[in-house]
Amino acid sequence: QNGTYTVEVVARDKAGNKLSQETKFTFDSQPPKVISVTSSGKTLTPGNANVILPQEGSVTFTVEDQGGSGIDFASVNVKISGPSQPASFSFTTDGVSTVTASYAGLSDEGTYTFEISFADRAGNSVSLKYPFRYILSPEKLPVVLSITPKDGSIVEGEPLAKVSAKLKDNSGVGLDLTNSSIYLAGPNGNVIKGTKSDNGVDVVEWDLITPLALDGSDDGVYTVSVTPVDKTGNIGLTEQIRFLFVASLSDSVTVSPEDGTYVNSLESVKVQIGTPVSEWIDLRSSAVKLVRSLTSKEIQGIVRVEGNGLSWRPSQTLKTDGDDDGSYRVVVVLTDKSGATLQITSELIYDTQPPNVEISPSDGSAVTEMKEVSVELKDALSGFDGAGTKVSLIGPKGNSLPIARQVTDKGLRLILQPLATDGSDDGIYTLKVTPKDMAGNIGVEETYRIAYVTSPSEAVSITPEEGTYVNDIKTIEVQPTGSWIDLQRSDLKVIGPDGNEVSGKLEISGNKMIWRIDNPRLKDGSQDGEYRILLSLADKLGNLHTVENTLRYDSLPPTVVSTSPKENERVSGDIEITVEASDDPGGGIPFSGLDLLASTIKLIGPDGKEVKGRADTDGISKLIFKPDELTQSG
After folding, report:
1. What is the pTM of this model?
2. Is the separation of the CB atoms in 615 and 598 below 8 Å?
3. CATH domain 33-134 topology
4. Contact by Cβ (8 Å): 272, 256
5. Topology of 249-350 in CATH?
6. Does residue 376 register a pLDDT over 90?
7. Which residues, including other chains, have CB under 8 Å from residue 348's CB and lie 6 or more apart?
8. How far apart (Å, rounded) are the C-alpha atoms in residues 15 and 35?
């Protein structure tokens, strides 16, 4: 390892005397090197005679030590050789890093060579040769006017089939296109196979046998070399340009947010350029723009260079109330070292508003069947996130119900487990939805309620009961048994046999609805008949469910049609007493019919006491009494 080493010595004699001493030396195994060779703004390179110098001038060699021992400037020697020796030649050093050689009086045209040799203080030496050309009339040499592609350019997205150069003759005799040369060297330095052609005037081309591919396999830095020759045999300076060939810039250029991204905030757009493209881009001449797709209006922003990329920030923060929502184009304009521009465009959706929610059955509605609930998520920009949207269904008893969810093209389909239709599952169901879209916007939790009512008649107890016969109408009572019922918004009407509403007053007393008749019914049979109880039962969402009951009003008692024995008839022996009755008053008046089980028949003897015997009926209209043996006349 090169550097300064220290030798530490401790020496002792037999009398105990000690000597301590340090000795330093430098180990240097690297020869010095030449950093640059310039003359009148031109750079000379070893083995390349593609520089023309004047008849007299000076050349500056910048040298540098590599190993740490320092350059031995006493060892420096510079020579010039060529078709002739200059009239004068000398060189000097500054003792630090520069050697300057001066010459004058070159006489013969041709190629000359500067040779410099020197060593460092460790004895490592180096010797290099730098050729150049001396031309008596350099202005008459042919020159290369332009090369396509341009130096420092990026060729992207098209198969490269040829390179070309435009030449200029300065001799007045014309160009020798046959001997002028052009070729293309690949990233590894090898010449790309091709054939030379020209236009017969001033353009030479190198036509590739196989165009550069667009699959990425041919990506890299390419060099075009062109040497013009005129018909007098003058050989102009060889011009070389380098360009970068890439199949697609997108492989090296990353735009964030990415193409097709949904965002709900946009603080910046960042463009990161990877190698080798970054080495060919003039970032300060490049730009990033954000354009609203619908109006093509550019959003004002500030572009800065950040490392190997660019950043764009809006001059004013985009609104988050939905006014700035929409589709935007990110336009990246990259300027290569040749000054040409390349454009990369991507799209993003700026969306700050969560989806709107609609459900079916609708909020506050009542249904008699509920196998599924559809949740429609409306988001015209980024679209809804079905997986990210939260839903829960709560039953009438406050319990969370299991649901199967399916994502559809419009939202979610929630499939419920089968609900009973006998009224046992009736009640208010609560659906909670927290919507989310693809831009990451999350809405507030929305609550929706649906009344599931299949058997409203099972949710109330009505007195008198359905089909009851009554001989008086005073009150009708409704007692709810379902928790979903709102008595305050419910109603009750009574419709008489004539189809008219019976006047009455409705009151709510605790958990009971009571209807009281205003005017008692007549007892002459004129108001007898079937009365309909129309109950409009409200659920807690305000929906009405109709329950209809009937009762039959019969104000007239039955009549006796016949008796056996007849009135005042005289009989003896065993007798059977039969009474035939009827509830039909005639005249088309409704009647309830005999209740033989509730009817009674008795026999009272002359002493005023009840005679024992057996009572019976014929099941239709007759009451029968079979007395025990009669022993007393009367």
Report:
1. 0.68
2. no
3. Immunoglobulin-like (2.60.40)
4. yes
5. Immunoglobulin-like (2.60.40)
6. yes
7. 257, 259, 260, 261, 262, 263, 266, 327, 328, 330
8. 58
